[in-house]
Amino acid sequence: NQLIEITQELNNSSNISIERHSQSFINEISVISSKKPTFNKWKQNAITVADGNGHGQELNQLSVPFGIFIDRKKYIFIADFNNHRIIEWKYNAKKGQIIAGGNGKGNRMDQLNLPTNVIIDRQNHSIIIADYGNRRVVQWLNQTQQILAENIDCWGLAMDKNGFLYVSDYKKNEVRRWKMGEYNNEGIVVAGGNGKGNQLNQLNSPGFIFVDDDQSVYVSDRDNYRVMKWRKDTKEGKIVAGGNGEGRSLNQLFYPQGVVVDDLGQIYVADGENYRVMRWCEGKEEGEIVVGGNGSGNQSDQLNGPMGLSFDDEGNLYVADLWNNRIE
User: The pTM is what?
Assistant: First the structure.
C-alpha cells in the first residue's frame, strides 16, 4: 500500500525522491473545528486554512509535509518534507514563508534533507527540526543553526513544560530525552531501547510522539499497530490504543501516525491506513472515530492517509491528510 511504499523510501533516505504519478501528496491545509478538544462531537467537515495550490516549490505550495505545529497565534509550522524546508503559514494567509531550509536538499547547516517534524521552543522561540535525511536534530534561531543531536534517525519531536527535548529514533526503536541546553551528550532513553519487537518494553518503528504535563511519553508504535504510554522513569510502556494487530475494528489501528493528548487525557491518533482519526480514553478496550472513517476520499468528511496531528489553543484539531494533498 501507499504507506508501506513511503516507508520503504524512508529506510533508504539517501536516494529519496517521492512521486506518485506526478501528483503531489500534500497541497493544502485545513482544520477540523471544535470549541474544545474535550467535546464528544466534532464538526465532520474540514475548513481549509492554507491551500497548497498544487505540488511545487512556490510559497503557496507544499510537497509532502509530515509533522505540523500550531502556535498561540494559530500560525502553522509545516515540515515540508520533499521541499526540504520548514514553512510558517500565518493565520488566514494565502501563502507561507520559509523559515528554515529552502536552499535545496543537502547537509550544510543552512540546508535540510527530508524534515519529518518541527516544534517551537516557547522559551526562546527557536525552531527545532527533525532533519531525518541528515540524521540530525537541528535548531534554528534567528537564522543561526545548531545541531542538537546527530547520528539519530529522528522522526518525532516533543518538548515538555520544563524544556526537555524528546526525539524518537525510527530505526533504533527508542525515544530519547535531552535536558535543555545539554545537547553534547547522547541523552537518556525514556521509551523502548530494547531492540525491535512487540513486548511492552519494546517498540517497532516509532514515529510521532507526545509528552504530557507528567512527562509521560506517548509513542505512535507504528509497526506494532498501537500507541504506547511510558510513564516517567518506568522500564516498560502500557498499550493505550490499538495493540490488537492491524485491522479496521474499533479496537485496532492500521499504521498509526500522529498522536496528541487533550487536557482530559484522551488520546487522539491518526489511524493512517484506516483513513480516520481515533479517540481513545485510557483503559478502554475500544476507541471511537472522531474524524473520517468514511472510506478513503477527498471529500471534506473523508481522509486518505492522515499523518501529523496538532491542537491549537482553542482546541481545533489539525490533521495532515497525506494522500489528499492537504492538512485538515
Answer: 0.88
